[in-house]
């Protein structure tokens, strides 16, 4: 793709990898929760600002074996309980 076209898409906020963006959103919400509560434990039904954070956390635990090492490390670094 020509760089000009890519830049035009970037300028309007095009998501190149929606799954990665969703993961980053979940991680950001988890950081907010931890800042407020001091831990990363919550019921699977927990929502933060409409984001289903409890479900996201549950999905991370289920995906442990297939998760990229970098993501595991980021979660470990904030005290995530597997």
Could you please describe the fold and organization of this structure?
- With 82 residues, the protein is an all-alpha fold.
- 59% of the residues lie in helices and 0% in strands.
- It is built from four helices and no strands.
- The chain has helices at residues 3-11, 18-37, 53-62, 69-77.
- The longest helix has 20 residues, at 18-37.
- The mean pLDDT is 93.
Q: Beta fraction of the residues?
A: under 5%
Structural class: mainly alpha
Number of helices: 4
Mean pLDDT across residues: 93
The major pleated sheet works out as: none
Could you list the spans in which at least 5 consecutive residues all have pLDDT below 50?
Answer: none
H-E string = HHHH
Overall helicity: 55-70%
- The count of DSSP E runs of length 2 or more, i.e. the number of strands, is 0
Distance between the termini: 40 Å
**What global shape is seen?**
elongated
Radius of gyration: 15 Å
């Amino acid at each position: 793709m020509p760089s000009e076209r890519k830049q035009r898409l970037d300028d309007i906020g095009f998501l190149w990898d929606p799954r990665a963006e969703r993961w980053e959103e979940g991680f950001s919400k988890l950081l907010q929760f931890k800042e407020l509560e001091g831990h990363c434990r919550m019921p699977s039904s927990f929502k933060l600002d409409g984001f289903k954070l409890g479900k996201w956390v549950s999905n991370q635990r289920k995906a442990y074996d297939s998760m990229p090492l970098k993501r595991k490390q980021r979660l470990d670094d904030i005290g995530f309980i597997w």
